[in-house]
Design brief:
Helices cover about 35% and strands about 15% of the residues. It is built from 17 helices and 13 strands. A hairpin with a 2-residue loop joins strand 3 and strand 4. The strands form four sheets. It has a six-stranded parallel β-sheet. The protein has a three-stranded antiparallel β-sheet with strand order 9-10-11, with helices on one face. The longest helix has 24 residues, at about 180-200. Mean pLDDT is about 95; it is low at about 1-15. The protein has helices at about 30-40, 70-75, 90-100, 115, 120-125, 150-160, 180-200, 210-220, 220-230, 265-270, 275-280, 285-290, 295-305, 310-320, 330-335, 335-340, 380-385, and strands at about 25, 45-50, 65, 70, 80-85, 105, 130-135, 205-210, 245-250, 255-260, 325, 345, 355. By secondary structure, it is an alpha/beta fold. It folds into two domains: about 5-220 and about 340-385, 3-Layer(aba) Sandwich (Rossmann fold); about 260-320, no CATH class.
Length: about 400
């Protein structure tokens, strides 16, 4: 193997990657699919990123590191990279040969595109009945919205998520990351691993249909339950509709986050701030009652906090084991002592700093640089000379 074909190192001495031997074809672009495949690569799968000769659009997204997209590098780390023109008979033929020798194929084309390319799920599974295909789309492989274009913002808007995000009475607000892509990417990786395990029993793969909208609706948790059982959830800013105090609160200088759910922790707060009268106040003594007087309790709590700076309040409440925090910037979160201890930021072999995987298995793999466009084209013939997959 040449220097430009080098793979990521094993996670630790004597520990092969958890998914070693699993071959994944990543035909996807930008975020949801590449993120799904990245998770599998982080766990040691052999992931082959298949791009058009023009490359993944995200290669043109900033910020930049030594002339390369840091965005692309994050979601395509630890992968091999090859280029194929799937509109060309030769390119499709080589892709089919790779599919015969692979375990998982991930794609996020709009429904119908793979069919038009002659690479439908039915055709791929006829060529390799043990292949697991993960298709991630905006609205799924069927239904009235099947062909509609989808982006994270559209999925967030349609899921109801934006309607319960933002200030009370304010405009609907997008969550600050592309969660409409990230959640289906997570679901896709989970589904792929479940299907591989199922294949051990059935001997066959399957086509997995993951939709951005379905995925976001599924994580609406408490607000979804309230909507299904007679409620009409609305945005309430940093407050929690069912827990008080559970929000950000102003001190004499700066704001802090305090999170108390239920009644077990509430006496700690009253003791820390020397407010025993709150336990006797029928408006505040129990969680269900505090929820009925959120404005009144906020006024009482912020009044008690006015004699402290944010730092002093955090020190005081922490000493009483009250869940509390400063509202950190992203830079502060990534540069904190705890983040350093936990290894939240990883450094690749060329000095590129990236977000580390939170998965800490013995078989997790340290990240290696994402491939340059077509970097591993010379390895395709080697892969194609290997045996057709008969499963793991």
């Amino acid at each position: 193997m040449t220097a430009t074909e080098n793979r990521s190192p094993a996670a630790g001495p004597g520990h092969p990657g958890s998914l070693e031997g699993l071959r994944v074809l990543d035909l996807s672009r930008v975020l949801a699919g590449p993120f799904c495949a990245m998770i599998l690569a982080d766990l040691g799968a052999e992931v082959i990123k298949v791009e058009s000769p023009d490359g993944d659009d995200s290669r043109h997204f900033g910020p930049w590191y030594n002339g390369e997209s840091a965005y692309y590098r994050l979601f395509n780390r630890s992968k091999y990279g090859v280029t194929m023109d799937l509109k060309d008979d030769g390119g499709r033929g080589r892709l089919l040969e790779l599919a015969r020798r692979s375990d998982v194929l991930i794609e996020n084309f709009r429904p119908g595109v793979m069919d038009r390319l002659g690479l439908s799920a039915e055709h791929l599974m006829a060529e390799n009945p043990r292949l697991v295909i993960v298709s991630i789309t905006g609205f799924g492989q069927d239904g009235p919205l099947q062909k509609a274009p989808a982006y994270d913002l559209i999925a967030q808007a349609m899921s109801g998520l934006m309607s319960i995000t933002g200030l009370r009475g304010g405009d609907p607000t997008r969550v600050g990351i592309s969660i409409g892509d990230v959640i289906p990417g997570l679901y896709g990786a989970i589904a792929a691993l479940a299907a591989i395990n199922e294949r051990h029993h059935t001997g066959r793969g399957q086509h997995i249909d993951v939709a951005m909208l379905d995925s976001l609706v599924s994580v609406l948790e408490s607000v979804g339950m309230r909507a299904l059982h007679g409620g009409r959830p609305v945005a309430c800013g940093n407050d929690h509709a069912m827990s008080t105090p559970f929000s950000t609160y102003a001190t004499g200088r700066g704001s802090i986050a305090i999170a108390i759910a239920g009644d077990r922790l509430f006496p700690r707060l009253t003791a820390a701030l020397d407010r025993p009268e709150w336990l006797a106040d029928e408006r505040f003594s129990e969680q269900t009652r505090r929820n009925g007087f959120p404005g009144e309790f906020r006024a009482a709590l912020e009044g008690a906090l006015q004699s402290y700076t944010a730092e002093e309040a955090i020190e005081l409440l922490s000493a009483h084991h009250v869940p509390v925090s400063k509202v950190h910037t992203v830079n502060e979160a990534l540069e904190s002592e705890h983040a350093a201890h936990r290894g939240a930021v990883a450094t690749e072999s060329d000095g590129f700093r990236t977000l580390a995987s939170p998965l800490r298995l013995k078989g997790s793999v340290a990240p290696s640089p994402a491939p340059t466009l077509g970097q591993h084209n010379g390895m395709v013939d080697r892969w194609l000379s290997g045996p057709v997959r008969t499963g793991r």
